[in-house]
Fold each of these.
Amino acid sequence: MPKRRDIVAIILIVLPWTLLITVWHQSAITPLLSTRKGKSGLRGDIVEVVRTEYVYSRPPPWSDVLPSIHVITPTYSRPVQKAELTRLANTLLHVPNLHWILVEDSQRTTTSVVRLLQETGLNYTHLNVETPRNYKVRGDTRDPRIPRGTIQRNLALRWLRETFSINSSQSGIVYFADDDNTYSLELFDEMRSTKKVSVWPVAFVGGLRYESPKVNKLGKVYGWKTVFDPRRPFAIDMAGFAVNLRLILSKPQAYFKLRGVKGGYQESSLLKELVTLSDLEPKAANCTKVLVWHTRTEKPVLVNEGKKGFTDSNVEI
Amino acid sequence: MATRMKLKLKTVFVLYFMVSLMGLIYALMQLGQRCDCTEHNMPKDRTISRLRGELHRFQEQLRKSEATKQPQKQPAKPTIFVITPTYARLVQKAELTRLSQTFLNVPQLHWIVVEDSPHKTPLVTDLLVKSGLTHTHLHMPTAKDRKLQEGDPSWLKPRGVEQRNEGLRWLREDRRAQPGGDNQQGVVYFADDDNTYSLQIFEEMRSTERVSVWPVGLVGGMKYERPVVEGGKVVRFHTGWRPSRPFPMDMAGFAVSLKLILANQEACFDGDAPMGFLESSLLQGLVTMDELEPKADNCSKVLVWHTRTEKPKMKREEALQAQGLGSDRAVEV
């Protein structure tokens, strides 16, 4: 009899406390959940405001809170250059806190690019470095062994390291954007939350509709869905990843390898100095959405120009 | 002694139980309300409050600018109606995406997208909705005998004729219901989905009275084609291919005022016209060469380029599909 009574007594004591603790635990979490939802909802609102309300204010006003995106674009002179840079600029004009680092493959900065950059009103840095002749692509052949744009991208990385100190609180993301690809605005939203290196699918590379990282149920990258050499350490295109600026600054030796790089291994030559596979953050709905396309522009057929050039060479194209 | 102790114990228990119950009720009431004192959320909270502050600032700025804009709003900018024919292929979404990003920078622009398809596709529908642009989504399939087949060179048959004509038809019908009748302000421009447009060209064409013209880069086998201007008037055309055409220009090199389109209800593109005469087939009925208005600094600047996008190589994709291992079709590209 006393035993039962004791048991009842113990239950009566313990039960309310366990309930109390559970409820308290719950209430501690709910505000956490609601603020998280609130944050993303708010963020969604901010993005809406910037896009629709400020359509004609280009570029959008600088925000103190959003991490900057440093877009590194190597470019070289050819007939479609101005067109490519124009439409890329038209895209970048919608991205808040964007810093465009344009690196020309030339001995000195060309006036047409200088003018273009000034007219866009974008926040930019204009650099140039000439690729030595023996590295340049010969004629039309797209020799994959000669990495194009490497020296220019490395110069941009060096500029970032010289300009930003690792101690500054400025948050930033680094993205390598070639001038002929197509980027959706959603892509820039996705990459802004990069902590180390984030990855996503890219369309029209590797002879496929798209190449993408393989993501498991836990949201971790464990492989690459490609046909072309999926055993590369990072079987991803230049347009398929972004790096946190802090990581770039903390590993000052990490650059794209110039010599002895097999075709398709250029991205790996940088990324293996920065992260391991398990550190990668998959974006674009766990790498199920295509937000960037590796488009290539046809080389215009200029047959009617003839040897002497039919059109006035003073007119800039 | 024992009973007294028992009694004491009983009261202790009861008190204990009451206190716990009260605590429980208190906690339950706390659940319903938001808790302000979450120490572990400080950085997030700070970010949120900063974002909220910025949002407030932007909203105020917008309200201020709207307030000052009101009195000045009377002479509204003429709307540019851009007619873009499009058809399904691998690069379609990419082309329309970057085109929409250019247009998003241009005020008072109405995008009329006409699909070469028997019905509207979800890809284009979603893209247009997400673009944030003022748009109209139409569709008009090309007749089978007029359609380019696989392997046909692109110049074999005229492309986009039915679609552009459908755009014109819709525009005329839509504008008939608007106030102002045939005197409405507006400009009509035919923009193909793979060309590249600078933002300046749209400002240049806004002042079109009848038909305005300008140079187009990377077309006709040359760096650029353009009208030659003397004394502010177009006297001839600088082109490397068939200069004897009435209007040897590319589709991207001219814009027509809305008034002219509405005043000539029958004017449209002729699909039976010989190669390169498509533009002329429309313009012939609308204007003469000396009536053309030269833009872009008397046709000396290139503000639009006839770029073409390469067809992506799909060898590996095709090989995989033959094995039944093709990429996930549910992922839209």
Amino acid sequence: MSFFSFGQSAEIDIVLNDAETRKKAEHKTEDGKKDNYFLFYDGETVSGKINVTLKNPGKRLEHQGIKIEFIGQIELYYDRGNHHEFVSLVKDLARPGELTQSQTFDFEFTHVEKPYESYTGQNVKLRYFLRATVSRRLNDISKEMEIVVHTLSTYPELNSSIKMEVGIEDCLHIEFEYNKSKYHLKDVIVGKIYFLLVRIKIRHMEIDIIKRETTGTGPNVYHENDTIAKYEIMDGAPVRGESIPIRLFLAGYEMTPTMRDINKKYSVRYYLNLVLIDEEERRYFKQQEITLWRKGDIMRKSMSHQAAIASQRFEGSSSAEKALAQAQAKEQEQ
Amino acid sequence: MSDPTVADTRRLNSKPQDLTDAYGPPSNFLEIDVYDPQTVGVGRNRFTTYEVRMRTNLPIFKLKDSVVRRRYSDFEWLKNELERDSKIVVPPLPGKALKRQLPFRGDEGIFEEAFIEERRVGLEQFINRLAGHPLAQNERCLHMFLQDESIDRNYIPGKV
């Protein structure tokens, strides 16, 4: 921002080429507010234009160069000064010179690697943004545009159930089972708790989802636990042989995919905490880690695939094969 | 092949419950009553005892039905033993009422009926809370308090 009213200044505007068609996603800012940003995936090209608009038309703007950067960075809140950039691309748009009128510059960052998901946490933040800069001798003019990146996964090949017997000797034995170990963000946790021995007076049982954000390394590791959900699954006293079902829909909770050791700076992991509470408010619990992943939006793909399968019923196999091949070719294009 | 876009939310298979388990007595029966306060002794050596009756089907207790007489200082002894030897957070006892033991009171002090009743309720809550704690159930002192005729203060502390 320039406090010198003499001379020239300018405003920069960043506009993406696909602003009309590209989806936006909601993302929390550091102060808890939610905002919408353009959504990108790994490998996608980021292209657009920057409009440099002169504030005083007629006067020239001298500059030491105009550039645009695409940056992916990790910021630890306890160490604000040090931004760790894991993606840093730059395109020079203009060599040092002067602008006599407002001008537009095109830019394209082709097939940009975006290896991690955007994340705003309690002690750490990972963000991606475009920064356009008009360099000047005394003070630069710059504009940032933040984008959101999601990392997608497909259905894991191996997704075994979690089944375990736990308890306190001679007091309480339970067998708990969750149908999977890896859940996507809109999945359902289906499980059951089977009581083998109940010698304490249980009043109720709940299942909590705990998010643990770990920052720092070595002796300075810090864990921040946050209970995202508390869901009562049983009210009353169970006896031996009873089986309590669990059905917990994850779509209702604000969660991110599991993030392990992102750039060796932080992790975000999720745990299911099974809690039994007895008549005297004593709590008995068992924590179990689950892996969360983000599923891609496959609506359009499955539609064309299903249309191909439907055509099999009416047209015979050869044209069905053709339709299937066409659907597959379409998927590959997307 | 099930449609991957719609999650399968059917319940997991489980063994049907045995009816004797379903309708039989629960394995967690434990009830302790503190009642029948009696003041014994004369003059300045008076004190109040309470009957402590425990009924249970927990295998860790030797007797399924036991009755003993205990006074407030016995409860204090138990609290101190557990605070020293076990890792549990011992529930609070009803007050010691030292003020009530001072002379020149208008009322009966610690032998006042309303006070004894208040204390009885507090002691009952205390012992029920404590006896239900899985870690307290392992302590020799709790078993001696509940089921031995008298408390041997020279006992060897330990686990059952």
